[in-house]
Amino acid sequence: MMYFTFGRAFLGHWALPDSRIVWFGSLPSEDPLTAAQVRAVPAAEWLERLRPLYAGHVPGETLLARAAPRT
Q1: How is residue 1 annotated by DSSP?
Q2: Strand ordering across the sheet containing 3-5
Q3: What's the pLDDT tens digit per position in 16-69?
Q4: What are φ and ψ of residue 42, in 5° steps?
Q5: Are 40 and 52 in contact (CB under 8 A)?
Q6: What's the pLDDT score for residue 29?
Q7: Would strands 21-25 and 3-5 be described as parallel, antiparallel, or unpaired?
Q8: Residue 4 three-state SS
């Protein structure tokens, strides 16, 4: 089952059979980022940007607090 939540930003998440959580989110922006722009930002930097945006968001804040960057 996939869940979608809304707040200052949109978040989708679901559990994998091995209990890991997959999630994705949106960023408010005047102009959408290109795939190349997204890939140019290291995962750790994305987490630094996203954590304040999802502060107070349920369940976004918890998911991002537990997320570790993958390279």
Answers
A1: -
A2: 3-5, 11-15, 21-25
A3: 999 999 999 888 888 989 999 999 999 999 999 999 989 998 899 999 999 998
A4: -60, 150
A5: no
A6: 83
A7: unpaired
A8: strand
- In the predicted structure, residue 8 carries a pLDDT above the cut 90: no
HEC-encoded secondary structure of 5-71: ECCCCCEEEEECCCCCEEEEECCCCCCCCCHHHHHCCCHHHHHHHHHHHCCCCCCHHHHHHHCCCCC
- Which residues are CB-neighbours of 23 under 8 A, at least 6 positions away? 11, 12, 13, 14, 63, 67
Angle at CA of residue 38, ends 23 and 13, nearest 5°: 5
Measured CA distances, 40 to 18, 24, 58, 70 (Å): 30, 17, 28, 14
pTM beyond 0.85, yes or no: no
Closest by Cα among 71, 56, 47 to 7: 56
